[in-house]
Every structure is written in structure tokens, then in C-alpha cells.
Prior knowledge:
The complex is a heterodimer of chains A (226) and B (262).
Chain A: H1 2-41, H2 45-60, H3 63-81, H4 91-117, H5 120-128, H6 133-167, H7 175-186, H8 189-218
Helix pairs in contact in A: 1-2, 1-4, 1-6, 1-7, 2-4, 3-4, 4-6, 5-6, 6-8, 7-8
Chain B: E1 11-22, E2 25-36, E3 40-45, H1 51-58, E4 66-71, E5 74-75, E6 78-81, E7 84-87, H2 90-97, E8 102-103, H3 115-125, H4 131-144, H5 160-172, E9 179-182, H6 190-205, E10 210-213, H7 217-223, E11 226-231, E12 234-239, H8 241-246, H9 251-258
Parallel strand pairs in B: 3-10, 3-11, 8-9, 9-10
Antiparallel strand pairs in B: 1-2, 1-4, 4-5, 6-7, 11-12
The complex binds adenosine-5'-triphosphate and magnesium ion.
Adenosine-5'-triphosphate binds at residues 22, 27, 45, 47-53 of chain B.
Amino acid sequence: MAHVTEYLPLLLAGLRTTLLLAISTMVVGLILGMLLALAKLSKSPWLSRPAYAFTNFMRGIPEFLVLLLIYFGGTQVLNGMLPEGGFEVSPFGAGLAALSVIFGAYASETFRAAFQSVPKGQIEAGRAYGFSTWKTFRYIQIPQIWRVAIPGLGNLWQGSVKDTALVSIVGLDDLMRKAQQASQTTREPFTFFFVASLMFLAITLVSMWIIARLERRASRGFAGAR
Amino acid sequence: MTTNGNGNAAVALEVNEIHKTFGTHEVLKGISLTAHDHDVVAILGSSGSGKSTFLRCINLLETPTSGEVRVKGEQIRMTIRRGEPAPADMKQVDRIRSKLAMVFQQFNLWQHMTILDNVVAGQVHVLGRDKHEATAKAEEMLKKVGVSDKVGHYPSQLSGGQQQRVAIARALAMDPEVMLFDEPTSALDPELVNEVLKVMRGLAEEGRTMLVVTHEMGFAREAANRLMFLHQGLVEDEGDPREVMKNPNSERFRQFLTGSLK
Lengths: 226, 262
Ligand SMILES: Nc1ncnc2c1ncn2[C@@H]1O[C@H](COP(=O)(O)OP(=O)(O)OP(=O)(O)O)[C@@H](O)[C@H]1O
Ligand SMILES: [Mg+2]
């Protein structure tokens, strides 16, 4: 156990990277998911068809494969485009791209369903009072969409926190990789993997608490909610 | 077309030859209406006659297939986009809509906002009033409709009658030129109808310009100064409510009044 305190700063640095990647993934993924949802709901098939195709493709292949495709494929594409060559996609960049594309694909379905759950009358009332499309979106649709979307998005967040562990395979210095390094040098794999598990669990518990609060906040005014 | 009780007042709303077709179904076949300030126009008609569609064409929730709408003399400019009629300038439409506050059958209060915020939101986001001014105005209007004890509640915590009165306060807070009511009491339990009608009678008395689609004959007779009867997309009868209700000009309206036209 003495080793744990010795390696704690190392693990905490890894935890920081893990959290940084997960949070960036969520931010980029939410934006991407919202854009994809709007494209899917668009009347124009030029927008909706590609959005559906992209989402289905991303949901149909293993996350790990998406990561490898972006990591190796991205490096190849970059080198092909830039004549100097020698470029390499950073593990963090590849992880962020892969995980946020996956997050976005799933989130777009959550958002799409949430958009459709807002009764037409809510939007019409906005339009009838002179709210522009944007103001209706901003002040009427978004707040009502959150309420419906938060549980689904919360699950996606928990999933992408865990998926960050995959990125250690392409060399990201995250919690997973640090735990692995510590367990190799100390020859105490169980101890360090156990500590890493506790840290992941802590993230999950804190997230659940925050999500529950957000959900309660967003549900104010709706039947069955306080 | 000739009757109106406020011949000297300025024209508030002018609707000219509105047609509306859904697919191949012509729902409105050329409807015109001139409402002066302080007019209260009751719009009657059986289900499917096009009453809601007519109101919704006035504030462009539906785009008329043809026809003109003028609010306080300003015509809503239309154009053709991809072969379909469309508003030429959405900013103009949004501005005019804010002068044509609508009260819906299903209230349509914003569920995620408190009662107070429902009445404040349009003032702030559309009219650009500052928060304090808007809040004061909202409180005043909520008091007027008798729900000032509910400001912090959410719509789902109110009865239908209370919600509809809040919806009326939301409309009043916009200082509208014309208020459009689409069957404001039809979704209410019978015992809640009167509290809403009472508020509406008060508005009529204080000289608000109102177009009211309703099945409430008492309200049409006593609170309105004009009556318009729609049947299959046409104005079949119109005039002073007391007169036409006593002596209908058209057979259809006579049938409607005796209840044989459903
Ligand atoms: N969006 C739409 N698409 C197609 N048809 C429509 C649409 N809205 C209304 N209609 C049709 O237009 C006709 C008139 O409808 P409208 O709602 O204006 O009647 P109404 O007089 O308000 O009836 P009610 O008393 O039942 O409210 C109906 O036949 C209806 O089916
Ligand atoms: Mg109707």
C-alpha cells in the first residue's frame, strides 16, 4: 500500500487527463449532436439523409475501431495532404475526435427525440407572440429539450468517461495508462487497477449526483415534478 | 361587410379576400374583414368551417394562399418562394405578430416558465422591455385577470381557467392592437368557463379590439358588437349580433342557431 501514496501524484495526473478528455468530448459531442439532430429534422433530404447515414455508421461499428481509424487513418491523411510529412495525430486529438464523434452520433438521437417531444403549441405560442425562429429555439425549445434529454445525455457522459480508457492504447497518458505503468513497475497490478477503479467510480458517483440535480432543475413546472 | 359599430374609430385590422388551400382542399374561399379600434368581432361557425384557419392566417401561423392582411395600415408583405406564397420579411411578420396577441384553445402557456415568466418573456425577448418594467407590467396584468397569487407557480399547477386567464394576461402585456381568441373556453370544464368569459367581457368593455372565435352565444350576443358566421370557408352571415341572431339573413345561420347545423 505504501506504493499507492508514492504513485498517487502520477495517478492524479492521469485522472486529470481522463477528465479533460471526457469533458472536451462532451462539449464537442453536444455541439455535434445538436447539429446532427437539426440536420435530421430538416425538411431538406440533402441535410437529413447524410446525417442519418453518418449516425448509423458511427453507431454500427465498435468504438475502439473508430479510435484506431481516426488515429492511423488521420495520420495517413495528414501526411498525404501535407508534403513535408512526418505528422502524427496526437493520442489526445485522436481520442477527442473519436469519442466526440461517437458521443455526437448517439446524442443526436437523444436530441431528435427530445425535439419531437415538445408539443407544437409551445412553439406556436412563441411564434404567435413574435419570437423569431432563433428566439423560439433559445427560450422555448432548448429549455424543454434539456428536460427530456438530460437522462440520455447523462448515460452518454458516463459511457464516454469509461471509453477514455481505450485511448490509453494509442498512448494517451490517462488514468488507465498511469495505473498500468504503476502496476508494472511495482508489480502490484491488483492494487493499482483497484485504485483506478475507485477513481472511475468516484467520477461516476459525482456525475450521477450532478445529473440528478440538473434533471430536477430542468423538470420544474412539469407534471409529476417539483 | 358594411356593418360595424365603430365607424368613427381608426381601422385596426383589415383582411382582404383571404384564401387558404390545404392540398386540394380549399378551406377559406375569400374572407374579408375590417375591424376598427374597440370592435369586438364574434366569429361563429360549425366545426371545420375554417374559423381557426382564418385567425391563423391573420397572424401568419398559416400562410394564406392569397389575400392581404393590414395591421394599423401596415400591410404584411408577401412573396413567392419555391412556387409557394411566403412572407417577404420575417422580421416584419414577427413585429406585427407581437401586435396581434393570440389566446389559444389549449392555453399553450410555456410549461418550463413560472406564471410570471410567461407574462414577462414576450415583453423582454420580443418588445425589448427591461426586466423591471416587464415584471411590473406582468404583475399588473396578472392582477387584472385575478391570478396574482400564483406568480411563482408553474402552469401545470393551475386549473384550466386560471391558465387561460394567465394566457390572457400574457397577451395583454404585449399591449396588442388586436387580440385574437380561438375558442378560449372550449377546453375548459363547464364550471370554469365563466371566470374566463368574465375577464373577456371586461376587456370588451374597456375597449380592447378583439376577434373571438367562440361557441358561447351569450358572449357573442352581449359582448360583441359584430358577428361573423363562417360556413365552408365563406362568410354566410354577418352584422350586429343581436340583430342577426334574432333575424338571420341566411338559412345556414338560422340552422346553426337552432342547432340543426352541426
Ligand atoms: N394544417 C392543416 N392541414 C390540412 N388540413 C387542415 C389543416 N388545418 C385545418 N385543416 C382543415 O381545414 C378545415 C377547417 O379547419 P379549422 O380548424 O379552421 O376549422 P374550425 O372552424 O376552427 O373548426 P373547429 O370548430 O373544430 O375548431 C378542416 O376541414 C380541417 O380539417
Ligand atoms: Mg378551430
